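tool_call predict_complex ligand=magnesium ion
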Amino acid sequence: MSKLTDLTIASALTGLENKDFTAVELAQAHIDAMAEQSNLNAFITETPDIALKQAEASDKRRASGDAGALDGIPLAIKDLFCTNGVQTTAGSHILEGFIPQYESTVTQKLFDDGAVMLGKTNLDEFAMGSSNTTSYYGNVINPWKRDGDDTDLTPGGSSGGSAAAVAAKICMGATGTDTGGSIRQPASFCGITGIKPTYGRCSRWGTVAFASSLDQAGTFARTVEDNALLLRSMSGHDPKDSTSANKDVPDFLAALTGDIKGKVIGIPKEYRVDGMPEEISALWQRGIKWLESAGATTIEVSLPHTHYALATYYVIAPAEASSNLARYDGVRFGHRAKEDDLTDMYEITRAEGFGDEVKRRIMIGTYALSSGYYDAYYIKAQKVRRLISQDFLSAFEKCDALLTPTAPSAAFAIGENEDDPIKMYLNDVFTVPASLAGLPGISIPAGVDSQGLPLGLQVIGRPWDEETVLKVAGVVENLAQFTYVPQTVKKAAA
Amino acid sequence: MAQMVQGETGDWEIVIGMEIHAQISVESKLFSGASTTFGAAPNTQVSLVDAAMPGMLPVLNEKCVEQAVRTGLGLGSKINTYSVFARKNYFYPDLPQGYQISQFEDPIVGKGEIEIDLPDGSVKNIGITRLHLEQDAGKSVHDQHPKKTYVDLNRSGCALMEIVSEPDISSPEEATAYLSKIRMILRYLETCDGNMDEGSMRADVNISVRKLGGELGTRAEIKNVNSLKAVQQCIEFEARRQVDLIEDGQAVVQETRLWDPVKLETRSMRSKEEAHDYRYFPDPDLLPLTFEQSWVDEIKQTLPELPDQKKHRFMNDFSLSRYDAGVLIAERSRADYYEDVAQGRDAKLAANWVINELLGILRKNDKTLEESPISAEQLGELIALISDDTISGKIAKDVFAEMFTSGKNAATIVDEKGLKQVTDTSAIEAIVDEVLAENPDNVEAYKGGKDKLFGFFVGQVMKKSQGKANPGAVNKLLKEKLSS
Amino acid sequence: MSLDKESVKKVASLARIRMSDEELERMMPQLSKIIGFVEQLAEVNTDNVEPLANVVDITPELRKDVVNDGDCADKVLKNAPEEIQGYFVVPKVVE
Ligand SMILES: [Mg+2]
Ligand SMILES: [Zn+2]
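tool_result ok
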């Protein structure tokens, strides 16, 4: 039998049901993996005791025939989801030691279905970043290395800890959040699959907010099927979130028929950006061929405002963030500077509590909303956002889904791109447009570059049509036959 | 009734606009399920949403929307079926989110107009600019500790309606009349209890002065004006301050000032003012608020008769003076009480009794109408006894006093005490004869031309009849007998 | 457009983030660069385009007016940096 940590969620559920192993054994195997690979710094808070307790309870439920859809599956939770009684930091010093007295809807739903929590994963501070280097709790190290090169690479961000933990087989799946690409880009960098559903599919209640009109929870796992399983448990209407849709959650698993005959896949021409690495265009071409070989038609479509998506995003997200992060003021929770004057207390608390990237974005957002600039920046960005959204809706009149690369590069070294915020922002050039339009998107590992690093392809679908997204992704997964394993995992196995 | 401020350079006109914050009568908060009851222990009526814990989200209370629509209809205003919640960003310890959820560009209620009644009996229309929904802040307590401020979030997130007037108000009297009228309307609609002592209603007053018909001057916004008296006083003070400033060659600064109810002056809040830039933007946690016009129409069907409608009806149907009608409609319960008393009876007499006797005795005993020991039905019966000559108006006052202390019905008291008016002419005639026989000197003097003695005879007869003799009959009989 | 130090200072104060002169100097070119980057939006013709605040195409459900939350001062105050007698406590506010 292969190692328990090699299993997919689907096969683990079968194994548990067949009594091949217990949930406690499964949890223990992952707890051991978490300890062995603590050097990745994927977790801010490890919760092995909770995991074992939940696993014991899971075994009991299964014995009495009450097992839920994810019963006994060890997951990692991005430290942006508030967890009752367990420190939740959002990767920030300002929330160090914060113990929520409530459980986010997403994690509650997972636990209701029997999932087991191994810990809270590291992330860019307040999910602001694409390299997981803005966390107060240190960088996460990508389990992948370039061939013959020991340089530490970033796992991408902001859900870098979750992606790294899944890739390193510390957990079977993980939650993430995606505001401009924070699930899809790290999935691509870590050689795993990650899906961001339609905005409004998962509740935002209890998830630390970054940019409210963009934030959406999603999942990481090593297969499309596992993502479908996790997403099915997480999704659904929540009366506590006014932007959560009261729509039935389809059986995402049932969508994985492998049959895409007659589907039309759009290839957005504006995504062929200048300077795209040859390996990435080649991978994209291969993806197109795979889908055609499976019976789909591909057509070129145009998303004319793509070029302006990043600029739009870097007005709207910081604007919302500047307001969302105003509650971190040292009054009711979190870090407080010891000062006798109220203004000093506010300003020094926030100066000490926030890192540079968060400060930059708060400043940009504050500026964009301030009097005299509101129309030129914020309202302008909202107008362009409508144009971007309309681009997609027009394209979807001609096709059922879009295929693009996930990111313009493979994982880069920690410290690279740090000197220039704009260069860093360009990482999200392919993921941000779908976020602005609230569309579901998935990244599937589809190949490796010349240095042996994984590269992902992205499938984007119509609003509320995660089924087609998962179906097409399943076909890519099947044909890509991505069987590469990160070097750190290979080393651990050796 | 514009009131001028006399300056050294001539008369100045006062231009006033008001922003009234009215706490909506509802059970739970605007965006959370925490209670809104007044006076609970600190931070006990606070949900995690009200405390702005990370990840908490607002969900709009539908009753608050309905109450705002009701109020808008009551203010004769346009109801906007599309409105938007916006964040007003600023830092303050009792503002947990770091922003107040309010409405800015698209409020739920647009323009309207109300009528105010002035002490000289005239009427003026005041324009309503808008009404919007917003969250209240918590409470900062500054006097518990020399170096600390204590924060209680019980009020944080309570639903407010901010009602903004046009700058149509031009004197302290008009301002208080406006505030009273708004309060009256809200109480009629039951959308706010109007209790200024508990802070359910608070006013900010925008004041500027100008030469008669001249350009609008720079305005100051006065906060913390929390009683009718304070409205009056702060306008008087502030208008004078501005006139003196301008005439002294200085400029009025556009700023927020605080009313000090102890020193009776306004003072600058510049410390709090520094570079305010609220950075309003649509709240991304809340989608635009939309509803059907048909729902507005349904609410319209359920509106009570409003004060002005009632006042005009009382004037027309009951021939009451504007003043009396105004007193009676001041509270919905008072108007209802009056209508019950007047039902099928002499409406003017009923108005006199309610206004002069009942409200007077209640005031003297520090009781509200709701606590009155005399029900409307009971007072109505008393008035019926006067009207059908069972008792005289004078006896009625004694009966009324007895009713107030014992709670007994008028008829019972009249029976028990044998107060029934004597209308039997022969019985009265006997008493008249008796009185005339007992006072032969006075009879002679009267007949000799001392007309004034007539009152003496009436008094004697009334006294002998213990006030029960019908005064009309007494007069008639005395006249007959004395002239014979 | 490049931001001058005064503007950056004003924004920092609005955002309640204390910044030393040195930090302001360091932040200035970074912010200017980002603002310069987003200013390309001016190229887009947005005549007759309505701003889009939120993409989600739903009519949100409203809450019934019932008291079903609050009464949890322990949870509310649990993480408070300073608390006295059930109040949050902050340095004195000078009015
Ligand atoms: Mg105001
Ligand atoms: Zn207000």
